[in-house]
């Protein structure tokens, strides 16, 4: 048990992207997925208990080591490149796409009450949004959806991790 | 020359309207249209007096508000068939509620621990230059990436010495067939390989159009391992 847990920890440390249970199961042939899930949760618990600079986070369908949010000021000093900012307009556009995907631009414009071409282009360039197809209506407008990178950037396990719009409304009241 | 000024205060007309509703502590389901319309128009007038070029959408909503106001002023008909007629404000309320929900959703996203802003992961050196032996991880690309690659190709072309050559007959159908033949032969090709040594515009253009067409028909797939890296083309079905 402890040895396997150590292997999983090593894999997580060396992985470039969030590591899924499926991928770990492929590597550790013969080990039950339920066991891997348990080990991951234990590891996450270990790091939480330790309360150090890093912890294990479930994100985009996998697990990944991340630095503690309150230490961001320090880690930023290490980074030379400026972080990519998302403008309020882009965030609104992104939220609409996240909740209404697949969605056409005309609907996004309608929800926001303004033209979203600029914001949409920025999101496409940042790969937070992608074209998922075309709607089968006259003119065949492009349908947009969020990407895996969107989940990674906003620390979401999957789309169902987003609070529902109803929950958000209740929060407001 | 006109300068485009983007006001950060309001994201759009709906945002301004929501602000006015909150400021007046108004029930969103029972908006006093006369009051709100006046305040909205005052705001727009103020922004215009500051010589700010207002987006057309602000005026569209002003027109909508005036339209609703005029409908509310009309006497209510006694005719029972019009009894079911919806409150003229209903559509606007729906739009405002939707907008409010998404605005909240956007704030909620922003409150999350954002990668490279609040939390950080380990970094890896970028993959080496396109080594044909090691294609690395492919990222599926879209038409925009292809257009960008095309533009790059054209800028490079403009810098090259131009030689006058005679135009030859070329058809898109021929080019599509040629590309498919070559792909069947070689399994995969890069965009540059397809262009080859020819640099005339028509050739590049036809190659590009043929690729767009083939992507649209889902006969080929295009991949790229990094931004501005080589674009690799595969047959969609082996």
Structure in words:
Chain A has 173 residues and is an alpha+beta fold. Helices cover 51% and strands 14% of the residues of chain A. Chain B is of the alpha+beta class and 238 residues long. Chain B is built from 8 helices and 4 strands; from the N terminus they run ααααβααβααββ. A 4-stranded antiparallel β-sheet of chain B has the order 1-3-4-2. In chain B, a hairpin with a 6-residue loop joins β3 and β4. The longest helix of chain B has 22 residues. About 5% of the residues of chain B have low confidence. Classes of the chains: A alpha+beta (173), B alpha+beta (238). At the A-B interface, β2, α5, α6 and α9 of A face α1 and α4 of B.
Question: Would you spell out the secondary-structure blueprint of this structure?
Answer:
The complex is a heterodimer of chains A (about 170) and B (about 240).
Chain A: H1 2-14, H2 21-27, H3 33-50, E1 54-59, E2 62-67, H4 72-78, H5 88-100, E3 103-104, H6 105-112, H7 117-125, E4 129-134, E5 142-146, H8 148-153, H9 165-172
Antiparallel strand pairs in A: 1-2, 3-5, 4-5
Helix pairs in contact in A: 1-3, 5-7
Chain B: H1 13-23, H2 33-49, H3 56-73, H4 90-111, E1 139-140, H5 143-159, H6 172-186, E2 188-190, H7 191-195, H8 201-216, E3 220-224, E4 231-235
Antiparallel strand pairs in B: 1-3, 2-4, 3-4
| SSE topology string of chain B | HHHHEHHEHHEE
The CATH class label of the largest domain in chain B is Mainly Alpha
Low-confidence stretches of chain B: 126-137
Using only C-alpha atoms, the radius of gyration of chain A works out to: 20 Å
By DSSP, the count of extended strands of chain A is 5
Terminal CA distance of chain B reads: 55 Å
Mean pLDDT across all amino acids of chain B: 77
β-strand number of chain B: 4
Strands side by side in the biggest sheet of chain B:
1-3-4-2
Structurally, the number of domains of chain B stands at: 2
Oligomer kind: heterodimer
Strand portion of chain A, in percent?
5-15%
Radius of gyration of chain B, in angstroms, nearest whole number: 29 Å
Would you identify the CATH H-level superfamily of the largest domain in chain B?
Structural maintenance of chromosome 1. Chain E
CATH domain class of the largest domain in chain A: Mainly Alpha
CATH fold annotation of the largest domain in chain B = Arc Repressor Mutant, subunit A
Query: Largest sheet of chain A, if any?
Result: 3 strands, antiparallel
Give the strand order, joined by hyphens, for the main sheet of chain A: 3-5-4
How do the SSEs of chain A run, as a string of H and E?
HHHEEHHEHHEEHH
Shape label of chain A = globular
Gross morphology of chain B is elongated
């Amino acid at each position: 048990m402890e040895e396997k847990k150590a292997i999983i920890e090593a894999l997580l440390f060396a992985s470039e992207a969030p590591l899924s249970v499926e991928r770990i199961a492929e590597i550790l042939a013969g080990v039950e997925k339920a066991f891997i899930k348990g080990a991951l949760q234990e590891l996450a618990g270990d790091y939480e208990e330790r309360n150090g600079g890093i912890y294990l986070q479930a994100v985009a369908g996998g697990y990944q080591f991340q630095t503690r949010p309150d230490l961001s000021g320090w880690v930023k000093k290490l980074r030379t490149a400026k972080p990519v900012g998302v403008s309020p307009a882009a965030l609104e556009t992104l939220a609409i796409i996240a909740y209404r995907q697949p969605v056409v631009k005309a609907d996004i414009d309608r929800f926001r009450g303004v033209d979203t071409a600029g914001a949409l282009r920025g999101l496409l360039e940042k790969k937070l949004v992608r074209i998922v197809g075309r709607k089968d209506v006259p003119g065949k407008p492009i349908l947009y959806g969020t990407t895996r990178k969107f989940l990674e950037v906003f620390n979401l396990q999957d789309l169902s991790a987003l609070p529902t719009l109803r929950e958000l409304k209740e929060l407001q009241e | 020359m006109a300068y485009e000024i983007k006001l950060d205060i309001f994201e759009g007309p709906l945002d301004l309207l929501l602000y006015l509703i909150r400021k007046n502590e108004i029930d969103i389901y029972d908006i006093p249209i006369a009051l709100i319309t006046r305040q909205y128009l005052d705001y727009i007038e103020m922004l215009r007096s500051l010589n700010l070029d207002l987006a057309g959408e602000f005026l569209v909503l002003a027109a909508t508000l005036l339209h609703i106001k005029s409908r509310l002023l009309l006497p209510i008909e006694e005719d029972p068939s019009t009894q079911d007629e919806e409150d003229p404000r209903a559509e606007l309320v729906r739009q405002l509620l939707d907008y409010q929900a998404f605005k909240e959703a956007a704030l909620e996203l922003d409150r999350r621990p954002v990668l490279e802003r609040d939390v950080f992961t380990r970094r890896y050196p970028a993959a080496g230059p396109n080594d044909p032996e090691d294609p690395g991880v492919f990222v599926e690309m879209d038409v925009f990436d292809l257009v960008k690659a095309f533009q790059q190709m054209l800028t490079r072309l403009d810098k090259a010495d131009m030689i006058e050559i005679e135009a030859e007959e070329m058809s898109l159908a021929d080019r599509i067939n040629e590309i498919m033949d070559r792909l069947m032969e070689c399994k995969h090709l890069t965009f540059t390989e397809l262009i080859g040594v020819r640099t005339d515009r028509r050739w590049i253009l036809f190659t590009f159009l043929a690729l767009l067409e083939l992507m649209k028909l889902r006969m080929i797939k295009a991949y790229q391992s990094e931004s501005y890296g080589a674009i690799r083309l595969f047959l969609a079905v082996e």
